[in-house]
Amino acid sequence: MTGRIAFQGELGAYSHEACRQARPGMEAVACRTFEDAIEACRAGDVDLAMLPVENSTYGRVADIHTLLPGSGLRIVDEAFVRVHINLLAVPGTALGDVKRAMSHTVLLGQCRDFLKTHAITAVTGADTAGSAKVVAERGEPALAALASELAGEIYGLDVLARQIEDQANNTTRFLVMSRQADHTRRAEKMMTTFTFRVRNIPAALYKAMGGFATNGVNMTKLESYMVGGSFTATAFYADIEGHPEDENVKRALEELKYFTSERDILGVYPADRRRD
C-alpha cells in the first residue's frame, strides 16, 4: 500500500516502528503531537494516522480516548507492537563507559532492573527517539539512550544491549485511523469500537451492558472519560469482538439504544493476529 501515514514523535519512535510493521509500503510522517497527527490526516496531508492507545505494562495512553471521539477519523485497523528496549550509544562505546541513560519516563520505568545492575542513572528525556537524537548530537560515551533499534539505525548509534525491558511481554496497541470508515468484513475475526453516553436513569450503565452479556458478545474494553470538564457528564469507550452485522452484535447494539442518549461507532476492523 502506498501513501503517507502520520505518527506522533521523532523518526525512530515506537509509533514509527508500528507504521513500518503495519503499513510497510507507506511513507511515515513524524508529527510533534497526537493532535498534529490527527489534523494531518483530517486535512488530507496524509492518508492514515497511527495512534497508540494502550500499553500492557502502563495501561491507557493519556488523552487518546478523549481525542478519538472528536477527531472526525475512523478506526480501520489495529496493530500490536512488542516494545523491545535497547541501550544505544555513540559508536565505539563500551557498556562499562555508560553512566547515564536517557529516555521517556515510561520507558525508564520498564528497565529498572538493567539500570540498577549496571549502575546507570536514569535521565528523563522528552521521548524515546528524541533521546536517541540527543545522544547522537552530544557524542558523549557516558550518555546512552533507551529506544528502539530503528532509532539506533536512524541516528547512527550502536546497540550495546538488546531487549533489556523488565517485562518480557511488554506490548503497545495502536489504532490505524482514516478519514473514511471501512465496515467491510475483511477478516474472520472482527472488532468494533464505539462510544456512548447513558441516559440519566437508575442503573443505566448496568442495563446498557446487559444486552452484550445476554447475547454472548465479548467486551474486551470498557473505559469512562469525562465530557467537557464536567464531573457529571460521562461518556464510555468500548471494544467488542464481532461485526455490527453479526446477529448477536446487532441485537446487543439495538438494546444499547434504549439506555443511551448518544452512540457512535468509531471503527470496525480486523483483530490483530497477536491479540490472542
Automatic annotation (TrEMBL):
Biochemical pathway: Amino-acid biosynthesis; L-phenylalanine biosynthesis; phenylpyruvate from prephenate: step 1/1
The record's CDD domains line, in alphabetical order, gives: ACT_CM-PDT, PBP2_Ct-PDT_like
- All copies of domain Prephenate dehydratase, residue ranges: 4-179
If you read the UniProt record, what top EC class would you report for this enzyme, in one word?
A: lyase
Reaction(s) the record says it catalyses: prephenate + H(+) = 3-phenylpyruvate + CO2 + H2O
GO CC, alphabetical? cytoplasm
Question: Boundaries of each ACT domain copy?
Answer: 193-270
BP GO terms, sorted = L-phenylalanine biosynthetic process
List the keywords (alphabetical). Answer: Amino-acid biosynthesis, Aromatic amino acid biosynthesis, Lyase, Phenylalanine biosynthesis
GO terms for MF? prephenate dehydratase activity
Look up the domain of life of the source: Bacteria
In short, the EC number is 4.2.1.51
Task: Write down what this protein is called.
Answer: prephenate dehydratase
